[in-house]
Protein: histidine kinase
Organism: Fulvivirga sediminis
Amino acid sequence: SNVMNPLKKINEEIFSYAALKQKEIDELKKLEAFRKEFIADVSHELKTPIFAAQGFVHTLLDGAVKDKNVRTRFLKKAAKSLDGLDMLVQDLLTLSQIETGEIKMHYETFDIKRLIEEIFDQFENKADKKNIELILDTTQHEVLVYADWQRINQVLTNLISNAVKYSNDGGKVTVSFQTNKGTITTYIKDTGEGIPPEDVHRIFERFYRVDKSRSREKGGTGLGLAIVKHIMEGHRSKVEVKTTMGKGSVFSFKLPVGEADPLLED
Ligand code: ADP
């Protein structure tokens, strides 16, 4: 057995090395499949608005341009498709920059309550059109968090935009906070249609939509929640969702409590 032992050992080493290599190959194959799927998805998403704009422009060139009413209507539709294309490319860039770590987080203390007030102002028109009430439910004078202001602005903008988009007319979008052991949880609650249980674990994937045609028609890129997820991961936090069909959804995320500036305290 003294002679056999070293051979056995070598054999074992070869086996474990082969297993390791196989694992690496499997991993690479998975990555490659993922990359292919991603390129196919992106191409498809890009084609949709390009195809639409192309159709309107060509119809105009083919003669529709002579009729003033048709002209304006088709140009408006072409412009809308191109705006959608612009949004999509912007979101894709943001997502890839966050994923490759090109965007460094800049942490600071800021008042998230004031940020939400500013975002509510931006959505006032859209909410008014659907008779949706925007409510900031807090008695606190300010809510200080420690985070990247610009990125959290994007997270809140995406979540509030969705809450308004997927709410029925006459609904309510309510933002509230809960403080707990050095963290602040922000809740964004809507009275929308809710998300089916079989879809809810997939809504943070790129381009995943519960209702493809409805979401597109509402002007979504399908990347909003993927961006939210990545930004929260960048903050070593996560975004959570609780939803009830026909009643609505609550999205939430935790951030560390910010330090009040000692120079400003009196
Ligand atoms: P989109 O641009 O399509 O809104 P998102 O990544 O922001 O893309 O959201 C993905 C999908 O999740 C949406 O298409 C929609 O089906 C669903 N969704 C997101 N937010 C809500 C919400 N507040 N209520 C109901 N469904 C939602």
